[in-house]
Every structure is written in C-alpha cells, then in structure tokens.
Amino acid sequence: MRRVASSLLFVLPMPDLKIDRNAKTLRELTLDKLRGAIVQGYFRPGDRLVERTLCDELGVSRTVVREVLRHLETEGLVEIAAGHGPIVARLDPALIGEMYELRGLLEANAARACAELATPQLVKRLRKIRKMIEDAFEKEDLSRVLEYTEHFYDAMFEGAGKQVSLTVVKSLNARINRLRAMTIAMPGRGAESNREMNALLDAIERHDGEAASAASAAHIRRASELALDALAEQERQQQEPASRRA
Fold first, then answer.
1. How far apart (Å, rounded) are the C-alpha atoms in residues 211 and 218?
2. How far apart are CA 236 and CA 232, in angstroms?
3. Residue 35 to residues 38, 78, 89, 149, 178: CA-CA distances in angstroms?
4. pTM of this prediction?
5. What are the DSSP calls for 4-47, one per residue?
6. Residue 10 has pLDDT above 50, yes or no
7. What are phi and psi of 65, to 5 degrees?
8. CDD domains under this entry (predicted)?
C-alpha cells in the first residue's frame, strides 16, 4: 500500500503555467495612466512629478511610480531637472521639427510601399480602422482617435513590409501622440485630418505609390505646422502677464 500511495504522487495533474498575455501588470496599468495624463495635457510641460503625490493619485507604491517615471524618461515624456527631480518634459520647437521631418520620411516611404503591395484584405482592414477614427472624432473621443491612429500606422507599415521603420516610429510614439493630442483638439482639425488620411488611403487602394507618398508627406507637413503653432501659442500665453490673462 505504501508503494501505491507513493506512486500516486507522480500522476497529479500539472498546474497551468501558461502566462495570460492579455493581463496587464500593475506597473503597465500605471504606465498607461501616467503616460495618458501627460499626452493629453493633464500634466503640462515643466510640471513637477512628485512621487508622494503620484502615489496618492494613482493608488500605487513609490517603487511602481519610480519605475514608471524612469520608463517615461526613456520615452522622452519626462526629464530630470536639477534641484527639482522629475518634471514633464518641455517641448523644444527644434526637436519637434526634426521629429516631424523623420516621421515624414519614414511614413511617406512606407505609404509608397504599402500602395504597391496592398492586398484587398489590407485595404479592408485600413478602411475599418479609418471608420473607427472618424467615429471617434465625431464623438470627440480624442483618446480613441490616438489609439486607432496608432493602429492605422501599424497596419500600414506592416503592409509595406517596413518592420525596421515601424520600430523607429514606435520608439517616438509617446512624443508623437503628445503632439498629436495637441493638434487633433484644434477646431476643424478632425474634418481636415480625415480628408488628408482618406486621400492617403484612396491612393493605397489604387496602388498609386507616388500619390500615397505625396498624401502622407502633406499630412505630416500640416500636422507639423499645427503643432508648432500650438506650441508658440502656449509659450505666448505663459509669458503674458497674469493681469492680462485674467
């Protein structure tokens, strides 16, 4: 009997060790929240990010907050100011111009390749994403506009076979979305952006690489103009005397 009991120990079912890849960790959830707060302007450029205050607002430990702040520093959303600690990264017009220049080159190249290689299935997928973006604009749900715009570009780069370019763009996504959040909130920008992006998608569907590249470049140029104008206006308001702002 002892031998039987001993042998039964080896036939117990194995535990399910498979990782649930859809479940986000507390750190990832905190990162999403704080990133979103910066991107959408809840925290403004130059604002101090005090660990104790963030712990209270987010309901997490100081260890999690520190890890998230370090990650956001690598994304370019947080910088360390001497004597002040972490602050929301300030927006430099020269760096913004350079970032849009890089975006323009990579996205126009991807748009051309995507048009040349696009399958009916890819066009259908892009059309579906575009419909979601238009619906989000109509409902003034700017967080969804940002989310689905990322999905659109992911699909376009993947359809173009430009994986290295996509990796570079994704490394800039946090800063791009911060600027995109500024521009898409401007009056009339939703309709204008939809026209620009639909022109790009029409060219992809026609397999017109030249037109797709031109449409992409035009869209980026306009976005760059709006972002720099918005930044100049913010700086003007900050420098304006308080008595005049009242």
1. 10
2. 6
3. 5, 10, 12, 17, 9
4. 0.81
5. HHHHHGGGSPPP-----TTPPPHHHHHHHHHHHHHHTTSSPTT-
6. no
7. -60, -45
8. WHTH_GntR
Fold of 25-88: Arc Repressor Mutant, subunit A (1.10.10)
pLDDT for res 41:
87
Coil vs helix vs strand at 109: helix
Task: Using the structure block, give the residue that is written with the tokens 């690489």.
Answer: 209
CATH of 93-237, one of 3.90.780.10, 1.20.120.530, 1.20.120.680, 3.40.640.10: 1.20.120.530
Q: Which residues pair with 85 in a beta bridge?
A: 81
C-alpha dihedral over 86, 142, 92, 87, to 10 degrees? -10
Helix (H) or strand (E) holding 86: strand 85-88
Q: Residue 155: CA atoms inside 13 Å, Cβ hemisphere, count?
A: 20
- Tell me the two tokens of residue 72: 């956001």
Q: What is the DSSP string of 167-233?
A: HHHHHTHHHHHHHHHHHHTSTTHHHHHHHHHHHHHHHHHTT-HHHHHHHHHHHHHHHHHHHHHHHHH
Per-residue pLDDT tens over the stretch 44-70: 899 999 999 999 999 999 999 999 999
Site of tokens 């009242």: 246
